[in-house]
């Protein structure tokens, strides 16, 4: 596939001698594990542990770059400024920012860790924009890889990191110490209470629109997120989905029968409703 320019992206850059220490105490990503040529997912959470902002984290020399959606960039900058106080750092915003996706190694590009988990090769480059060839092929790959994004698949301030597989894709640290919302996500991890998860949805016909309810036994178990043709993503209660599968009940997206698959790279499975969900 040819390089694709992603629309509506922005970058918040954190510079200065304490840039890493500043962010390490705020965001979910463990920056000590971030390689120079890697783009890792991450989030800034609410104190209640829900995703307030999500982004891709990369190094730019001694600075740290947070690539995010243009619709949340100014609010992210404002929130970081609130935490800044007297820290010797500088915050800057580039919006819109040229972000190009490559499907092979490219000079100066960063390997996207989310796709690497699914054994797919995707690189992100910053600077000159790539060809504006449309993003359908990228979206198909994203869906097939089980990579959820805010807006299309979940609403900010409405999802926990576990819901969107951040505990599995390198976005969430349980070892680096405190950060905003850390107590809640740590408790979910150690108690194994994560039951809402991203699944890959497939049908024999075209799927209905994003937001359509997924039901089993007449009960809503989730809702469709990203959709292209007969494939999509959804966040569902995997215990309820597993219970329906175990009893041979059909799962519907609106009126369309569907099958649900947990991304293989997660190591998760569908428990019966009475069982503990894998986490």
From TrEMBL:
A Pfam family recorded for this sequence: Beta-barrel_CAF17_C
InterPro entries the UniProt entry points to: CAF17_C, TrmE/GcvT-like, YgfZ/GCV_T_CS, YgfZ/GcvT
Ranges of residues in domain CAF17 C-terminal: 195-266
Keyword terms, alphabetized: Transit peptide
Lineage of the organism: Bacteria, Pseudomonadati, Pseudomonadota, Alphaproteobacteria, Hyphomicrobiales
Domain of life: Bacteria
Protein name in the entry: Folate-binding protein YgfZ
Keyword Transit peptide carried by entry: yes
Source organism: Rhizobium herbae
